[in-house]
Every structure is written in structure tokens, then in C-alpha cells.
Amino acid sequence: MNEKKPQPLDNARHFSVRLSATRRGARLARHFSVAWMRVRGLPVPVVESAEHVVAELATNAATHGRVTGRDFLLVLKEETDVLRIALTDTRGEELPRLPGPQLPDGEAESGRGLVLVEALADRWGVIAGPVPRKTVWAELDLPVRELAGPRRETRSATGPCQPWVSPVISSSAAR
Questions:
Q1: Which DSSP category does 104 fall into?
Q2: How far is CA 87 from the centre of its chain?
Q3: Where are the domains of the chain?
Q4: Cα separation, 113 vs 123, whole angstroms
Q5: Which of 128, 68, 67, 119 is nearest to 96 (CA)?
Q6: 21 Cβ partners below 8 Å, 6+ apart?
Q7: At a CB cut-off of 8 Å and minimum separation 6, what does 119 contact?
Q8: Which residues, other chains included, contact 159 with Cβ-Cβ below 8 Å and sequence gap of 6+?
Q9: 54 and 86 in contact (C-beta within 8 Å)?
Q10: What is the C-alpha separation between 130 and 158, in angstroms, rounded?
């Protein structure tokens, strides 16, 4: 099986897991994400929105980004004021249409996933590469929380979870 155990990193403020690009992998991505966000104590409205964003991005990776035998990578990172979600798959030649997704014909059975991401995320975008990959990322702003102690910044200069540092293509949802 391609499923790997989730890897909590960076004092549990960072979560990543590689899953098979299947419907089961997409479902596990959603379940693992919700469990991690609940353990982190994120506000319920953020968890609910993020759950839908992860579900849509993972479903897109399993449907449109699937290459037989290759996985997708889900990364979640909580920072002081933002939850970052990134999903990397191995179909870099298939980029979502931007500046914004278009609503499909009313009779279409698919094509609404990125419309939901646009509506739920405060920011989102796509980064092409390195070949053959692409990363679709989304950010949800977090409400300010009172903390028991000082919170340190955990952003590193390198690593696979930096797709939101310099997005090639991005979109901002109007709230």
C-alpha cells in the first residue's frame, strides 16, 4: 500500500502526509487534517472551512493529478495568524484555470471544487514545479488567540512546505 503514517513535525505545528492518489487517499487526507486541527485546538469555523478545502484539493489530486503509482503530499502548517494548506501532486502540466475558477454548466456533475476553495479560503494559488509536480495551496486566516506563553515563528527557509512563500499564480477571495 502507498499510504504512509502521518508525520507530525515542528513541535506539532506542522503536519504532512503522503497518500495514494485515490478516493481513499483523499478521504484519509480529510480525516487526518480534521484530527490534527482539533488536536491543535483551532476554532471550529476554521476547522470546518479547512476540512472542505482539504477535501476539494485532495479530490482534485486524486482525480486530475493522478499518475499511477505516485502519491500526493498534504501539508498543513499553523502559524500565528494563518493556517496554510498545501497539496502537491505529480501532474504539473494540468494547472487549474485562474484568475478564478468558473462555475460549470448547471447540469455538470463536477467542476465546482475550486469554486468552493475560492469561497472558503482567504487566499489560494498554484505553483508549478519542480517538474513534474504542482502545488495547490490555500490560506485561512486565524482569529487572534490568547496564549499561555510566547509563540515562536516556525517558518523555515527551506523544505517542501514553502509553496505559499512565493506563489506563481494566486487568487484572493473577497470576504
A1: P
A2: 5
A3: 7-172
A4: 15
A5: 128
A6: 61, 62, 65, 66, 67, 70, 71, 72, 89, 90
A7: 173
A8: none
A9: no
A10: 14
User: Which pLDDT score is estimated for 93?
Assistant: 59
Class of residue 94 by CB neighbours under 10 A (exposed 0-12, middle 13-18, buried 19+): exposed
Read off the amino acid at residue 70.
R
**Distances in whole angstroms, Cα of residue 161 to Cα of each of 44, 82, 98, 115, 155:** 24, 14, 22, 24, 9
- CB count in 10 Å sphere of residue 59: 20
* Angle 9-10-13 from CA coordinates, rounded to 5°: 90
Q: How far is CA 156 from CA 149, 153, 160, 161, in A?
A: 21, 9, 10, 9
As assigned by CATH, the class of the 7-172 domain is alpha beta
Which set of grid coordinates corresponds to residue 9? 513535525
pTM of the model: 0.70
Question: CA of 65: how far to CAs of 29, 62, 89, in Å?
Answer: 15, 6, 6
Task: Tell me the per-residue pLDDT of 15-70, one tens digit each, with 9 for 90 and over.
Answer: 999 998 889 999 999 999 999 999 999 999 999 999 999 999 999 888 866 666 67
Task: Show the cell assigned to 63.
Answer: 482525480
